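Predict structure. Chain length: 425.
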Amino acid sequence: MADPQPPASAPAPDARSIISTPVEEEMKESYLNYAMSVIVSRALPDARDGLKPSQRRILIAMNDLNLGPRAKPRKCAKICGDTSGNYHPHGESIVYPTLVRLAQDFATRYTLVQGQGNFGSVDGDPPAAMRYTEARMTSWAAQMLENLDQGTVDFQPNYDARLQEPVVLPSKFPNLLCNGAMGIAVGMATSIPPHNLGEVCDGLIHLIGNPQASVEELMAHVPGPDFPTGGLICGAGGIREAYATGRGLITVRGRVHVEDAARGARKNIIVDEIPYNVNKASLIERIADLVKQDLIAGISDIRDESDRTGMRVVIECGKGEDENIILNQLYAMSSLQETISIINIALVNGRPVTMTLRDLLQAYLDHRREVIRRRTRFLLEQAEREAHLLEGLVKALDVIDEIIALIRAASSVETAKAGLMERWA
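Prediction complete.
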């Protein structure tokens, strides 16, 4: 048997094709590219419509399915499948939790999705599988998509260049400030609290009339966040700092009141509202653990009497116990009092920017001015095209017999068109 031929040696690389790069520089550049991709494509909202790409694509998919506020709800599996297949190719298991949060009234101040079925609860109960739940858009989401087909925003190819998707929504509804945003990117995070729609609109109106308005003037109209689960904000210093610099800390307490118990000289502490993003079941469990560990004395019982009419957690105080002391201990050792970080970071022209209250309002106003300008231009061009046709018809009415004769004598449609244009312009 003949010896096998030795493998041919690979040609020596051309020295001109080798780029010498320090490994630390390559790692730095690659990591920065990855970080910016996460920041822009996933984690941070756009300052104009207040949506992350996944949220925006869910609304676009629902709009494609004509799931308006009065439409019959469709299975969430269909919505998530269309979103993943057409716009957001990261799997339905990624899309569905985002859809669920848009429908939870305890997580989203003005829900953009109206859910039908089990979409979870403030106790931390998980939502049902997407094959069991149904959804459609709310009126708030419909307003964000209004005039989308009138050239108001730019479009870009989807991930496989098969469809076109809007870069941003027209957003007649000021979503970023009204619903807030939370997201963790690479090297930065955003935590914008929700606000009251009426107060935000008052602030926008004031800024339109007073373009140089200060943060203090705007705070007369937008005094602070407005959380969907309620609660009380302790002090305005943290709010003022957050609105003036884009970063701040606020302390939020649950709203409580004290009632006389049915049994003798006892008091009951009634929790009516809890801080934002606090799990009610975990709060009750934490209080029970504090009592078992003797870290809080004087609580004889705790029970959850919440129903569809509202929240009601009853904390029974022992006989002769001071309810104010117990309440202060609950504030100090449980999530009945929480410190919420405000970090107003959003994307402006594709770059993350820390924004003051005035910046957030101005970014939305600038976006709406551009949308209205583009919509007006679209409607004007449409009207001009229609006017051109009507002018031609009016001119034809004066010489209708001659036009009919010319068309009948023409050998083809193209000959008739050329004759009409040549003779009557």
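Summary: The chain has 14 helices and 16 strands.
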